[in-house]
Amino acid sequence: MSKKESIILGVKVLIVFIFFCGGYVMWCQTLVEWWKPACWAVILGALSMPLLRRVTSCNSVIDWIGWLVLMTSLFYCAILGLNYGVADRDAVHTESAVVDRRYEKEHTRRGRRGRHMGTYHTYHIDVTFEDGRRKTFSIPVVRYRTTRTGSTVKYKVCTGCLGWKIVV
Asked: What's the farthest any 2 CA atoms get from each other in the chain?
């Protein structure tokens, strides 16, 4: 592999990473099961396969897999971005959810050369909305300390253009 090919591969991997991270950030605020946007993205990525022949002259299996991964990440971010970006922000309403579980995670902070630099904590709650949807939220420590299991929390919610609700 030449230097030019390795740079192109690195850029492609970076683009896939950015698209999946962007989609994940939007999914964290969307009240939908994880597999729905993922399945739509894979289907649209597979339907875009004939476009590969028009873009490149390569027909190897590795090229097909790389194209599928790239287009799936693009469509994953685009689907969730469309739902999030074109949401009806004027129709924001409040929905109640019951806290099923609250927990904290301890993470290890690492410095240069793998040195142990201490630990930090993140705080999470699992909630169930009135219509049965479940979601995990990361919350600040102040809210974690005041929230109890079984209590009710309120979230401002609006509906996206694909019908998936978004926590505002």
From this structure: 60
HSE-up of residue 114 (Cα within 13 Å, Cβ side): 0
Q: What is the block-wise mean pLDDT of the chain (168 residues), using blocks of 10 residues?
A: 88 95 95 95 93 76 88 96 92 96 92 78 96 94 96 95 93
Q: Is the separation of the CB atoms in 69 and 75 below 8 Å?
A: no
Sheet holding 30-31, edge to edge: 30-31, 165-167, 152-159, 93-110, 116-129, 134-139
Cα distance between residue 69 and residue 21, in whole Å: 14
Task: Give the number of other Cβ atoms within 10 Å of residue 71's Cβ.
Answer: 23
> Would the pTM of this model clear 0.70, i.e. be above it?
yes
